[in-house]
Amino acid sequence: MPVDLLSGVSVALAPLLPWPVLGALFGFALLMVLIAAARRARGTWLRLLAVAVLALALINPSLVQEKRDPIKDVAIVVIDDSPSQAIGYRRARTERAAEQLTERLKRFNDLEVRVVRSAEGGETGGTINETHLFDALNRAMADVPRRRMAGAVFITDGQVHDVPQVPGKLADIGPIHTLLTGDRDEGDRRIAIVQAPNYGLVGKPVELTIRVDDMPGRQSADAAVTLRQDGGAPSTIRVPVGRDVRVDLPITHGGQNVLELEVEPAKQELTLANNRAAVVVNGVRDRLRVLLVSGEPHAGERTWRNLLKADPAVDLVHFTILRPPEKQDGTPIRELSLIAFPIRELFEVKLDEFDLIIFDRYRRRGVLPQMYLENIADYVRKGGALLETSGQGYAGPLSLYRTPLGSILPAAPSGQTVDSPFLPTVTDVGRRHPVTAGLPGDRLDAAPSWGRWFHQVDVTPNSGTVVMQGAGNRPLLVLDRVGKGRVAQLASDQIWLWSRGFEGGGPQAELLRRLAHWLMKEPELEENDLRAHVDGNRITVERRSLTPDPRSVTITDPSDQTSTLQLTDDRTGRAIATVTAAAPGIYRISDGERTTLAVVGAVNTPELADVRSTGDRMQPVAEATGGGIHWVTDTDSGPNPGIDVRRTQPDRSQTGSGWIGLRANGDYTVTGVTDVPLLPVGAVLALVLGGLLMAWRREGR
């Protein structure tokens, strides 16, 4: 056993004269002795003795004794806290092995033991997608000189993802041993996303490549994979095991399209977490096709055109009826327009190709036959979008409401109009609707900061939601869902005043942008919806509703454990809460009516790619540092590493059957020095004079 106080003894030389002078004197004296010896003079050896004693005295040797305090070596125990350690009995074995190992290391008084976990100080704000044990090791020994390192012990399942590419660089920190917490000959099945695009065009499918693997070897010919898109009805396909398979994902809407995949369990399974995968593809519209029909020229017509043409992603088809058919002035028909109005092509043949149809101050004038207006109503019911901005004509007998479109328009005209200044305001429900919530200039405790309008059609809502009101609190903007489509009705044609900056203008661009995107079913503008946003390992759950909803949501994690989360309403139509995900995977969130998914971590996270316990990854490190790889065994009393720990010399073997070694460096600090001269002055003089006298006497005989 090491002692508390070590003594170091050495001989130090402190010459009384410079070495060149001593060399010359010693050479001269030796020459005289050699001459005397050649002449066979008596007393030569006595003179040689005197010269030697004198030379030794001039060299001034002393005995130096150091008082040394030993410095403790440092041994680091790195504990794997990654999600794969939760499989089976690995966590229990890990904790028990760490406890017993640290107890055994305490018996070494010259050893400082540091225990660090992989989850401490690791990825902040991110989930555990990989196991980084060497990062934890570097943090633990950041303040320790390499000469003090006794070695390290990793307690892990062996799935370590930050193993250095050149393990030999770790040799100077001592042996790195690995204690494996899993079982030998484990098997598992997984499903992996081999290839998946990030974006896809709405209305067109994208191609994915998936793969099902049985590890360590192929155990079955094929497997059943269940597919579910956006939480909808499941469908099942059979895929061959061990081969890439292509799957088509239809992009049905803008925003996130989530496809869940789940493969049936195999005969051997460690976890079902990697039997599931998810693909998130953002749906984008290639070109938004908008049909704008203006019933007559007016000051606000250019506002619509400028807004839509300013967006390079919009293909605009715009027709303005300049001359109504009832006007007869003898103008030849070929001179009435630059091109013929392609009524049949637009409203029958290619109607379904448009994403949005806008009627701006349109009234019945016989230009569009009733059958084509009926086609538009059917187009909306099947999923189309219609925006109607009402002019003076909507209140009269030629109103669009008195056509087949009246069956889908949410507000009926009373026959009256208001021609006086008024300030458009957002209703209480409108402040919760994503189209009008938080509009720039809107204020809860005061009138809005935008400008006034001067004309409004008096309408009575039959359906839908009134999100803005105008003169005398009359409905101004009404939103409605009809069948699979959507309709918006603006009971005024003077939004162009905001674009001209009248009385400070207003948020016309933002309002119309939100309105168009809501009509085209952009998920971010759904007024009654449940969604989840993922940032690292944080899941933010958001529920939008037009009325306060106190219900909590249920979160099902990748291991099918459920928890409850209470949302906090912010009075703008949103109820929000944030939760931290403990592991990567697919989280299902439901409020009993709607369900959404949150995909935490990478699509093919390395942490779940292979969860079998193995020493293959750590083998190069063990060979480079002299460490060993051992399995944690189970005993009657519980998990036990079954490994003895020894202190070993740096040049000896560091591991063996049933034991691991931590090198003893023997480093120390010097606390004191004692310097004792070997030749006292008196003794030196006596020896020199005695030798010379004896030599003189010898010669005198």
Question: Care to describe what's here?
Answer:
The protein is an alpha/beta fold and 701 residues long. It is built from 12 helices and 39 strands. The chain starts with 5 loop residues before the first strand and ends with a helix. Residues 1-6 and 122-126 have low confidence and may be disordered. The chain crosses the membrane at residues 16-38, 45-64, 678-696.
Work out the helix count.
12
Strand order of the largest sheet: 16-15-17-18-24-23-22-20
**N-to-C CA distance:** 64 Å
In the predicted model, the low-confidence regions spanning at least 5 consecutive residues are 1-6, 122-126
Oligomer: single chain
The tally of structural domains comes to 5
Q: What is the CATH third-level topology name of the largest domain?
A: Rossmann fold
**Residues in helix, %:** 10-25%
Write down how many β-strands occur, each being a DSSP E stretch of 2 or more residues: 39
Structural class: alpha/beta
CATH class of the largest domain: Alpha Beta
**CATH architectural grouping of the largest domain:** 3-Layer(aba) Sandwich
In the CATH hierarchy, what is the superfamily of the largest domain? Class I glutamine amidotransferase (GATase) domain
Rg (CA only): 45 Å
Strand content: 25-35%
InterPro entries: Class_I_gatase-like
Protein name: Glutamine amidotransferase domain-containing protein
Transmembrane segments: 16-38, 45-64, 678-696
Region (Disordered): 628-658
